[in-house]
Design goal:
The protein is an all-alpha fold. It folds into 2 domains: about 30 residues; about 35 residues. About 65% of the residues lie in helices and about 0% in strands. It contains 4 helices and no strands. The longest helix has 19 residues.
Length: about 70
């Protein structure tokens, strides 16, 4: 039977910060869900999309050769 739990690799500093949020007998699962509920996925994805839009704007008017060179793919 497969376990319903999964391991997630995080840096030690991240784990230490996460432990600070774990209070009153809460599980790490509960803490993570509270944090995710506080920051809706739409807000996170909008930040990512905004960054992609900024990057695309910077690439306008450049040739593929220039773009590939800026990405280190030349």
């Amino acid at each position: 039977m497969k376990s319903k739990y999964r391991s997630v690799a995080v840096r030690r500093a991240t784990f230490e910060r996460l432990k600070d949020y774990k209070m009153g007998g809460a599980t790490f699962d509960e803490v993570l869900n509270q944090l995710m509920d506080a920051l809706p996925i739409e807000e996170v994805s909008e930040e990512v999309l905004a960054e992609h839009r900024r990057r695309l704007k910077d690439l306008r008017g450049r040739s593929w050769k220039q773009v590939r060179k800026s990405l280190g793919d030349d």
